[in-house]
Amino acid sequence: xxxxxxxxxxxxAGVFVGAWFLLDARWTWNLARQVLTTADQYGGKDxxxxxxxxxxxxxxxxxxxxxxxxxxxxxxVFVVADAAYFRxxxxxxxxxxxxxxxxxxxxxxxxxxxxxxxxIVVAQRRGIQFDxxxxxLRWDGTQVVSAExxxxxxxxxxxxxx
Length: 162
Known about the structure:
24% strand; 162 residues
């Protein structure tokens, strides 16, 4: 009776160690595969090239072009996007400007809080309307500011408040 309980404990320990080894081998294989994928995607690139290779590469490229049009000294910038990911990443790429991006809610500050010289970055946000003949930017149906479109690319836009 004592010998069978020892052998059963040994079998259970062996199964446990074997299962652990298989899971660890699978994890190691996946890690090695991911290292190769990451090296292919980012290897040999400078910091700009790495940013362009990231999932938010198109946003980074747009912000890079927008920064060339914006003043070098920090300015107030409002970032709006339907996705929190785009709001937060655009804000990150726009620093050291004084950036306002609502981290959680898909909300735009009231037009009354904006003043001439402010900038608005729109990243894939529905409900934004721009009338170039009147130079009016409208959102949420009733909020309107005078603005000039400085840059527009598929899904992204840069406005300067007049």
